[in-house]
Amino acid sequence: MQAAGTHLAKLDFTAGLAGKEHSNPQFMFLKPTHSMFGFFTSLCDAYSRVLMPDKGLMQKLHQDASDRSAHHTLNDLPKSCVFCANPTFLSLHGPTAK
């Protein structure tokens, strides 16, 4: 129900803006026949998903943020970089290794 209301509000806003700016060449992309209209509508959809995310997505983000395993992986990254920069490792696996 909320998605339908959001969609209708977006259509009303777009139609109102297109009516107001119909003679302004900077707003020609609001016409459905314009080549950039699809891009504009996809941006509107993306902004809608960011500003009003699904509850399931928000719960997953909160769960991932509290999951410590991701933090451990990031903490181990500098150790991996030091290992890869080791001259012995580079001589065996580097771009000049044969």
Short description, anyone?
The chain is mainly alpha-helical.
- In which range does the helix fraction lie? over 70%
- Percent of sequence in beta strands: under 5%
Number of helices: 5
Number of strands: 0
Biggest β-sheet, characterized? none
- The overall average pLDDT, rounded, is 74
Unreliable segments of 5+ consecutive residues? none
Task: Please state the overall shape, judged from the principal axes of the Cα atoms.
Answer: elongated
Record the SSE blueprint.
Blueprint: H1 2-20, H2 37-51, H3 55-66, H4 69-84, H5 87-93
Provide an overview of this structure.
With 98 residues, this protein is mostly helical. The relative contact order is 0.05. 70% of the residues lie in helices and 0% in strands.
Features:
single chain; 98 residues; mainly alpha; 0% strand
